[in-house]
Design goal:
Elements: H1 11-42, E1 72-81, E2 90-91, E3 96-102, E4 104-109, E5 114-118, E6 122-125, E7 131-134, E8 141-150, E9 157-158
Antiparallel strand pairs: 1-8, 2-9, 3-6, 3-8, 4-5, 4-7
């Protein structure tokens, strides 16, 4: 008699595998940086290449649009949110890549619905997307944002609260 074994993958298993994969990527980057540093130290000089991670995260988005039409400016910035701090309602003139390095950031969208971005997550903001980001934790939240803006444009443009009220989505 032959028995069939069935493997069940739970969300926790997938999450654990993703965490292990991220840990492996971070460890590989650290080994590469240490190897290059050691190589430079063997010859009494600085390594020819140093990769020094500032923030790292993971996104499950399958379609990311990072297009800017025409000449562009790029700004990489560290944003430190004290407990209760927020950006205020705003838009960006170009796409933004955000890595949550520590803490958590609560993003409120124009429709009033919210998305919680925990430590280690990456999210993308489209040009013209009205939103507000806030730290509603008891600790400091630190994020790194890469702004891709049309040449000469400010990376963050304040706007009025759109007054959206989140409504549950129908499952039809």
């Amino acid at each position: 008699m032959t028995k069939r074994l069935t493997t069940v993958t739970t969300t926790a298993d997938r999450s654990r595998r993703r965490s292990l994969l991220r840990l492996g990527v971070a460890a590989s980057a650290a080994v590469l940086a240490l190897s290059l540093t050691a190589l430079g130290n063997l010859h009494g000089q600085t390594a020819p290449l140093q990769i020094i991670p500032q923030a790292q995260g993971h996104s499950t988005d399958k379609h990311v649009n990072l297009r800017v039409k025409g000449p562009s400016d790029t700004l990489v910035a560290k944003l430190t949110f004290q407990p209760g701090a927020e950006t205020g309602w705003h838009i960006h003139p170009g796409p933004v890549v955000v890595v949550v390095n520590s803490g958590a950031l609560l993003e409120t969208h124009s429709d009033g619905c919210t998305t919680l971005h925990p430590t280690g997550s990456v999210f993308f903001e489209s040009a013209g997307e009205v939103h507000n980001a806030a730290n509603q934790t008891n600790g400091v939240t630190e994020v790194y944002a890469t702004f891709l803006s049309p040449e000469g444009a400010q990376p963050l443009i304040p706007v009025q609260n759109p007054g959206g009220v989140c409504r549950p989505k129908d499952n039809q």
